[in-house]
Structures are given as C-alpha cells and as structure tokens.
Amino acid sequence: MxxxxxxxxxLICGKGGSGKSSVVSLLGNALVKKGYKTIxxxxxxxxxxxxxxxxxxxxxxxxxxxxxxxxxxxxxxxxDDPSPLTRIGSDEAVIDAAIKLSEIPKEYSLKKKNLxxxxxxxxxxxxxxxxxxxxxxxxxFIVKGGFVTLIDMExxxxxxxxxxxxxxxxxxxxxxxxxxxxxxxxxxxxxxEIMGKKKVVALIxxxxxxxxxxxxxxxLKERNVQYLGTINYDDEIQTAGFEGKMIVNSKAGNxxxxxxxxxxxxxx
Length: 268
Ligand SMILES: Nc1ncnc2c1ncn2[C@@H]1O[C@H](COP(=O)(O)OP(=O)(O)OP(=O)(O)O)[C@@H](O)[C@H]1O
Ligand SMILES: [Mg+2]
Fold this sequence. Notes:
Elements: E1 9-14, H1 20-33, E2 38-42, H2 50-53, H3 65-68, H4 71-74, E3 109-112, E4 115-119, H5 132-140, E5 148-152, H6 158-161, E6 170-175, H7 179-194, E7 200-207, H8 210-222, E8 226-232, H9 235-243, H10 253-266
This protein binds adenosine-5'-triphosphate and magnesium ion.
C-alpha cells in the first residue's frame, strides 16, 4: 500500500440511480482491505438510508452529524451564508482545526474495523427546511488522522451551486449507460474547471457489454471527461440494492481494485 489517498477527500456524484452509493460502498470496503482508514460520509439528505444499509446488517442508523454540530439553528445553508462550519461552543472553523474522531460520540457513526460511516442528516418532516445545512457539513467535515473520506452525494448537480466541492481533492462522477448520465458528467467537468480546476474523473457503472463500454468511453472523450474505470453490471450489487442489504460476493473486486490503483495516481 502506498498511502497516496491518506487525508484525501473524494466526492462521488452523478445522475440519480447511476450507482453512487453502491460505488462508495464497494470502494470503501476495498480501501479498508488495502489498509486505508476510511470514512464514508452519506451526504444525501433525501435518501432514507441507502449507504447505511449497503454496509451493515444493523437496523439502527447512526445519529445525524448535523445534531453534533448544533442542528439547523446553528448550521446554515452555504448559499445564504458561506461562513465556515464550526463546532458547538467554538468560533474556530472546522477546516482550520480538523475534527478528531474521538470528539464525536459513538452513536453518530457505524464502525466496522477501519471503516467509519456517518450520515449527515435526512429530511424527515414537512416544512422542515431545505438540505442546505447538510451541504455545509459535506463541504467542511474534515477529519484528522490519515483517513480517506468518500462523500456520497445527492443526485444531480445542485451541490455545485452550494460549493460542496470546495474542500475535495478529487471528484468521481458515476455514469451508467443513460444519455442524461453523460450530460451530467460533462457538466460536472465543466463546472469543476471553473471552480479552481478540480480534477474530475468518470467511473462507468452497470454496463453489461464491451460494445456499450467502448461507446461510453468514446463519448466521455468527446465531452472532455477523463475515464477512471469500469464496474460491470452485477446481479449481486443489484440484489443488495433491492433488498437494502450489504453488498457481498460482488464480482466487481478486480475492477474496484484497479480503480483504487488509478485513484492513487491521480491525487497530488
Ligand atoms: N454495477 C451494478 N450492477 C448492477 N446493479 C447496480 C450496479 N450499481 C448499482 N446498481 C443498482 O442500481 C440501483 C441504484 O444504485 P445506487 O443506489 O447505488 O445509486 P445512487 O446513484 O446512489 O442512487 P440515488 O441517486 O438514488 O442516491 C440499485 O438498485 C443498485 O443495486
Ligand atoms: Mg445514493
């Protein structure tokens, strides 16, 4: 293991249903096997619990991180107020004084060996407000101690409007074989270029033919989006997604490891 992804924050985004949460789970578990301490951050406020279910048989979800930071009364939407995220009782920005895992009570996370999963928060009530405050946590939740953090974003590109990408080292856009996915990948690459040249790479997911994979690679090239790797369509992943269970026995192992090797070459 070469440790290149240590302390890196990688954002996983893309079209709704393209496979973001499945990819985060596959990469997260493979990173742990490779020796990385890994944080999975569920930053999708509208999905009831996708990422959590894909990583444990446990039924009780962790407490939302937004409560740790003082809830909606303290954490503001970055579009209205871009000021940095702070801890309760402190004015110091989390981005200047990164969080130690030992600061956060254990009910806020799911822990599996070297994998730690957090849920930022979920929309549960009518009229409770937008998910902007959750975006600020996704933007500024930086943890001390050599972790690689994978951020599982909500579908689409609204998060760019809120600047969630400000503190990430790499953006992975997941594309499934759907026209809209390719357009979103191109938009992500273009917007990221404007946002300080963040590196964007595309991960092709759910393909079941070499022909379609070749077409998609060509299409990405024409749209100026760098190719990262491919995860084929796999029944095991779909079954886990349908049943809301952990992904086990996926055939994607070799492809996922190749993707991690490539990610290690892409970060500075
Ligand atoms: N490589 C794959 N092979 C087969 N099925 C897959 C694959 N990747 C994802 N899926 C299935 O596609 C569906 C959507 O996957 P997932 O929930 O990971 O996508 P998402 O992008 O996180 O969705 P959302 O936008 O709702 O958050 C699930 O049923 C999942 O099991
Ligand atoms: Mg998801």
